[in-house]
Amino acid sequence: MHEADQLKDYISSEALKECLEIQRTSSNNRSLFIIAIEQGYINDKTLAKIVKNISPKGQEKESRTPPKKKFGEYCVEKGFASQAQVDECIAIQSKLKKEGKHFRIGQILIEKKYVAFRQAQYILEMQGKKIMRCESCDTKFNIRNYKSNKKYKCPKCGDILSSSINSVSVGVNKSIVNKETVEIDDEAVSLSGRKIGDYEISELLGEGGMADVYKVTSPFKRKPRALKIMKASAGMERFTREFESAHALRHPHIVRVYETGNLDNRPYFFMEYLDGGSLDKRIEKMGVIPLLEGLTILKQVTMGLKYAHENKIVHRDIKPNNILLTRGSRRELIAKITDFGIARAVNDSHITVTGQLVGTFKYMAPEYIKGLGVDGNNDIFSLGITAFEMFTGKEPFNVDEPIGYLFVNIKENVAPIHQENPDLPKELTLIVNKMVAKDPRNRYNSGELLRDLDRLCRFLQNGEKLQQSEDKSSVFYENKKLFAIKNIWDKISQKISGTETEVVVAAQEEEEVDYENLSQTVEVDSDERAKEMYQWGLTRIQKGDYEEAVKTFFNIVKSYPKSSSAESARKKIKAIRSRKKKSS
């Protein structure tokens, strides 16, 4: 079905004509949906309805295969729960999702005691699934495409899985969080214990739509490796592209890819194994990533992106799930980029074609959604959204459906991170704001971002004075003429009070005042030193060094009692003392 036919039931004929004319006169083949969003004719909820009603590509209208029913629909159909109860649980699920907690509707229905455990098992079996449990490690697996004639081994420890599970509570507040049911495909769980050369598949690390990733070990090798093996139903092109892109990139902050091969007619390749898990799991566990740790991750990922961009490769799917963590020989944190499955060369024209949107909607740059092409700045936007989640523990927007991000990423600005986490330094807010700028011309490239992160890290870690920059791409850009005017005005205003004075300053420099950049320029206040000390105190708190933090805040109050930072320092001292009293 043509896009115009899909849109006509949702916008007026005049609006549709306007969008068609914009599409006709545009230099690239832009989607009508995106044009309608830009013109304000459809919102995120309308877009979700449109997409829901569009048949998948290649599916015939006359197809007699009914869509698979959802768990809640089966519950109502079988009389296990009422529609009101299912709706209530869906609302709870949506609320928990906004808090970063992801639970299946069946888990919530069981916890609310609307559905019995055995009833849930029955519905899962109707959906071709089966919950099985490992007696050794007590992990539960929800196996899709379950086959009753097969014996399943635990992907974690290798023991035999049992289908006998007691009908115990799987509470949303405690049990689910601690012992979540792992959803896994029959294909993925079947490989446990298999051997490839010297390596044995010992543990399932992750399962995706295209491939599964396992930990593999060898008695002849000191270090384990990761094995990525394509699913039987997945397309070959993306898998091959990931191997070729990642294999060509050799950088300390990009996951190393080794040799490739074939197992049961399924291609695979070996990768570097990182034992710290993915960044999204760390955010889920910690809520908010500590400031200096988050900056370390941000800086290292930027270094990896800079190298990829210099080699004309754009990742296109930077997100917490594709950033893996480990510890170095000195226990220092190391972050590495993985999953180059949808990476493309910068000059690849195929990625701008309508309908070729690939990646994760939440992290997509506005210009990419609009079909305006791809370059390294797209990855910087995605990394900016990742930074927002790291430092706030929240998602940048609240949307009902993932498709809603296509709307908000074009139309709405990301809130400054200090609004969600007031303890963050204002300089970091400036950096993240520039990373998620709607216009890619106002956004960093990877080299510019790396330079500003270096400045901020030196300032926070070593207590050095924050270095201003003459580089206009920096948020720490210092316009010499602007500051000269400000300093002269400050001196005059100290002498004159209560009278209107016109001051004309003849500047020596030829450079024009960059008024557009004023909102992103760090102002130099009379109590700048107090502010620097205050930020240093915050970094001590982030590191858990409360004693040193209190000393720093006392010094601010003593040395700069009239500064704007003094009152904030007093509040921090009070908060730390209160914390100590509660813990003692």
Automatic annotation (TrEMBL):
One of its GO terms (molecular function) is ATP binding. SUPFAM superfamilies: Protein kinase-like (PK-like). SMART domains: S_TKc (SM00220). Residues 199-460 form the Protein kinase domain. ATP binds at residue 228. TPR repeats lie at residues 530-563. It comes from the Bacteria. The keyword ATP-binding applies. Transmembrane segments: none annotated. Keywords: ATP-binding, Kinase, Nucleotide-binding, Serine/threonine-protein kinase, TPR repeat, Transferase. InterPro entries: Kinase-like_dom_sf (IPR011009), Prot_kinase_dom (IPR000719), Protein_kinase_ATP_BS (IPR017441), Ser/Thr_kinase_AS (IPR008271), Ser_Thr_kinase (IPR053235), TPR-like_helical_dom_sf (IPR011990), TPR_rpt (IPR019734). GO terms for cellular component: cytoplasm. This is Serine/threonine protein kinase. It comes from Uabimicrobium amorphum.
